[in-house]
Amino acid sequence: FVSGIIPLGRTLAHRPAMASSSVLIKLLVVVGCAAAASAATLTVGGSSGWTLGQNYDTWASGQTFAVGDKLVFSFVGAHTVTEVNKNDYDNCAVASNSISSTSTSPATLDLAAAGMHYYICTISGHCAGGMKLAINVGSGSGSGSGSGTPPSTTPGSSGTPPATPSSP
After folding, report:
1. Where are the alpha helices (DSSP H) in 4-138?
2. Residue 149 vs residues 13, 44, 115, 125: alpha-carbon distances, Å
3. Which of 25, 51, 64, 93 is the most exposed place for a label (fewest CB within 10 A)?
4. CA distance 82 to 123
5. Which top-level group of life is the source organism from (predicted)?
6. C-alpha closest to that of 119 among 140, 141, 95
7. What is the pLDDT of residues 119-141, one digit of tens each?
């Protein structure tokens, strides 16, 4: 075998095509990784999860939320994750007109729209006991950390489309 000799069945014309295919594949991998890296998956409450006795305002203030991110509510026992409007959030209302609700853990919600989103646990006494979360979802890509915007205290409705549950 002599170095520099092209194997049988191959011509010099094959080499540029193979090289450009390799570059294209590498480029697609890089672009795919960048797109996947731009969306964050955030576990509400960190390692404690969605439970009584947590301060979710403090947790949210250390996060940045963006369209495309996923919120994961992990809990044990009887709890719900119910997206509500601001008035129901402020009053810990068990609303029949909730935006979305689940009682299955872990609950993964896609943040599909920018704006304020409000979540409560509808089990009696749980919302009043602190199981409520208000987040401001930005339109840019999220990183999962940074400075969250604290919820407004002005009464009214969020007016934002719901976060959509994603399949596990």
Report:
1. 14-38, 56-61, 86-91
2. 58, 15, 10, 26
3. 25
4. 10
5. Bacteria
6. 95
7. 999 999 999 999 999 999 998 75
